[in-house]
């Protein structure tokens, strides 16, 4: 443990460096079949492109097992195979180092603050009731906020909720969103924006006529501004915008969020950011595809009225359409929640009988419902369309692609450790020894290495990659890989379930069997911690029963 927690990226860097080539040659294996023979591979094709005749110098090959580093896995052997150069890890030592460290992001990440991000969800503006298509960007923003915070990034969520009927829907879905008092806020900022409009060469008075919307202040020529500034990525149909009081109110709230970022993070940010009055504060508009045009209008209006560095850091995270297979009538977000809840309730009654109708189960049903909806909305790449089946009345609590399946396996782990603890209290087993006293050479079942190598090892990097905001070389759209966490949890659940169904963890209370049982419990305790950390980014509490 003193050598530090091993990581995939650090090990791959060390392996690439050992071969003395400035290209990426090595890949991490993940399939059970290949992991029986090797853990890392430099494929034959890559070696042929990097070395004459594909022949790696013998001294380079022999040096690979001696690679060392604070985050480098302990390597056992490197050999030539028909598939390429294959490396195996010293597995007992890898178990020792990984299971003696904490899960989750690198502990240094939270200390090294990386600026601030304002996540703006225009779907929450206005009095209209939320629909499933509105929920998608809100759930995405909520999940992304958790991922960013875990990496030490400050996050502000806007707009503040003012519509009471939407509070209840978001509360049911465990969406932690700030609320406001309603009415007009930030009057000084709105007045300043109006004054800026009066000085703006792109703005012109708007004649009030029968066809003019109420509350229109003036009109602004967006197209000429885009052309003048050489901006790219905006809709070519953007032309004249009729500016309303509501738009200025939205901009004032965004300005206030940026100011809060600058003030709260100024002590943690680099000097250049702190002196730039928020220049390290990125603004991400999380919108569904139907709102994208309107949000681009607001983006440009803000750039025109407040030409500070932060307005130039605006990016748009666009969600694909949400198709609902219910042709009868539009469905609200609250109806969607209740539909999924009734499905989960019926499925639980069918599986567990009268027990599932007990009041103590209602919170479990609510959590399963939230999990089902969050995985339904977030396990698909945000750019792609998702289809909500609201016609089929059946839903499984164990479908391998559902959030309920993930929660089910999390609960199985809780039951395992509860059973073990009860057995310890009854004197059946001794308590779990310290990790330094465990014999990880007992872990020889292939499912055990699969859990460690594919899930415990890369988990911090999975969280880090899911929180990365990919900045395009040009344009205003960005993408994030937030679906990674849901997919990670689903695959982890499948591999854990397969292992758990195959291997008996709590064996007979014979001393000669304790070494293996304790090593397995330590492994599964780390798996449980990964479940809990990943579910926390989805605002899902772990279940102790299901």
Automatic annotation (TrEMBL):
<dbReference type="InterPro" id="IPR037380">
    <property type="entry name" value="DALRD3"/>
</dbReference>
<dbReference type="Pfam" id="PF05746">
    <property type="entry name" value="DALR_1"/>
</dbReference>
<dbReference type="GO" id="GO:0000049">
    <property type="term" value="F:tRNA binding"/>
</dbReference>
<dbReference type="GO" id="GO:0006420">
    <property type="term" value="P:arginyl-tRNA aminoacylation"/>
</dbReference>
<dbReference type="GO" id="GO:0004814">
    <property type="term" value="F:arginine-tRNA ligase activity"/>
</dbReference>
<dbReference type="GO" id="GO:0005524">
    <property type="term" value="F:ATP binding"/>
</dbReference>
<dbReference type="GO" id="GO:0106217">
    <property type="term" value="P:tRNA C3-cytosine methylation"/>
</dbReference>
<protein>
    <submittedName>
        <fullName>DALD3 protein</fullName>
    </submittedName>
</protein>
<dbReference type="InterPro" id="IPR008909">
    <property type="entry name" value="DALR_anticod-bd"/>
</dbReference>
<feature type="domain" description="DALR anticodon binding">
    <location>
        <begin position="406"/>
        <end position="546"/>
    </location>
</feature>
<dbReference type="InterPro" id="IPR009080">
    <property type="entry name" value="tRNAsynth_Ia_anticodon-bd"/>
</dbReference>
